[in-house]
Structure formats: structure tokens, C-alpha cells
Amino acid sequence: MPRLRFRVLTVNAHKGFSVFNRRFILRELREAVNAVSADVVFLQEVIGAHAHHARRYADWPATPQYEYLADTMWKHCYGRNAVYPHGDHGNALLSRFPIRSYTNHDASVGAFEARGLLHCVLDMPGAADGLHAICVHLGLREAHRGKQMQQLCALIEKEVPPQAPLVVAGDFNDWRQAGHLRLRRCGMTEVFVSAHGKAARTYPARWPLLRLDRIYARNAHSQHALVLPARPWSHLSDHAPLAAEFEV
Q1: Which of 36, 39, 53, 102 could form a cystine bridge with 6, CB 3.0-4.6 A?
Q2: 154: left (phi over 0), alpha (psi -120 to 50) or beta
Q3: Residue 218: domain span
């Protein structure tokens, strides 16, 4: 059977605003995401609803941001993490493959940072167990990230069949890379570490210094891994997006 190739993209959507929240740039972000031609898109900090912004910005979409970004090109699922009186935001996944199922796992530690692990199972040709995709956005505190990494590994062990292709991507906020060894023990390989010897610098997007964003895989061979160029991305998010191509 011919091997299947697919491309993934991970980007912190920054709630549809430019760096420092100076401009609402969701339309430009959608155009940039479309241009990558990814098969699976991992999104963090996506707004589901925001009553105040909807009144303030004339070009605020009538649909949730993840539906607007999906347009007619992708199926979508959303994991609501933070809920407040005027709206909510969380992680989302866009997929060219049919979405078999999805579950958003609460990964919050304490009361001040609402975090989640969005686990989606995609119907991919030739993969009886489906392609498993987990979109993550971990906490700012190292102690919290340690607990969230443990939760992620437990989720993988319990919910992902050992033979199934798996991609985990998102904003790990792990500038010290302390969690990298934890995921290696779960059988995961980080694509930039595998290709270049170290994780990619992604933050801040204009002058990347910190290695916050990652793409991990298991049972999927990475063909290419790249940080997307500064233009147009550096004014679309405070994180530089990552893309990788896989073969299974």
C-alpha cells in the first residue's frame, strides 16, 4: 500500500490580534493559514465567543474564530478552556481528514490558568486506529507543566493504541525543555530535535529566542520540519508557527 503523506501546522492564534493586541488581524491570519496547505492545523488561544469584542470590532466574525479559520477547507473541533462572563477561548484543531471523535481534557492546575489537552481522532486512509492528534497549551509555571506533562503521558497510554500514528503539537511554554525527557519516555520524538538536534526557537516571533512550541510524533516519520518565515507571520502572532510533513 502506498505510504500517506500529510502536513501539520501549529500556531498560537493570539485570539486573532497582532502582537501587543494593536490590531484585529483574524482575516490575515486565515489567509496565512490557508497558504500553508496543511492537512491538520493545531491552534492555541482561539476565541469561541467574546461579546465585548463583537460589539467593538466591525469585522468580528459572526461565527466562532475556529469556524472562521476553518472556512470551507477543514473540519474542526474546539476545546473550551477559559470561560468568563463575556466569552471563552481554548484550543482548536482543523482537519482535512474526517473527525471521528474528540475530547477536551481539563489540564488546569490551580485556579488562575485554564489549560486543556484537545485529543482528536481523525479518519485517515490506511490507519485503522485513526490518526490521533493532541493539541496542547501548557502552563507558565514549571511545576504546573510537570503535572500537565504527566497527564499528557497518561492520556497517551490510556487512549492511544500503541500502533496508531500520533502527533502532539502546540505551545508547551517549556523554555527550559524540562518536559522533553518526559515525552521521550512516552515514546514521542520531537521533529526539530530529530532533524536539527534542538527544538526550534519560536518566541517572540519577531526575534525568536525561546523554544516554546513543539511538534512531537509517534509512529509517523517526519520528512520536513521548518519554522515559518517572519513575513507575514511576525505580525500575526507573538509565536512563530511550526510546520512539519509526515509519512505513515
Answers
A1: 39
A2: alpha
A3: 5-247
CB 39 within 8 A of CB 95: yes
CA distance 241 to 114: 22
All residues at 6 or more sequence positions from 181 whose CB lies less than 8 Å from its CB, including other chains? none
Check residue 101 and give its pLDDT: 98
Query: C-alpha distances in angstroms, 106 versus 64, 194, 241, 242?
Result: 20, 30, 24, 24
Tell me the C-alpha distance between 230 and 210, whole Å.
15
Sign of CA dihedral 49, 38, 187, 180: negative
Q: What is the CATH number of the domain that holds 79?
A: 3.60.10.10
* pTM of the complete model: 0.97
Cβ atoms of residues 199 and 190 within 8 Å: yes
Round to whole Å and give the CA distance between 109 and 151. Answer: 11
**In what order do the strands lie in the sheet containing 75-84?**
75-84, 87-95, 40-50, 5-12, 242-247, 221-227
Side-chain-side CA neighbours of residue 136 (13 Å)? 29
pLDDT along the chain (248 residues), means of 10: 88 94 94 97 98 96 98 96 96 98 96 93 94 97 93 97 97 84 89 93 94 96 91 93 96
DSSP string across 125-144:
TT-TT-EEEEEEE--SSHHH
Q: Is the torsion defined by CA of 227, 231, 232, 234 positive or negative?
A: positive
Domain count, the chain: 1
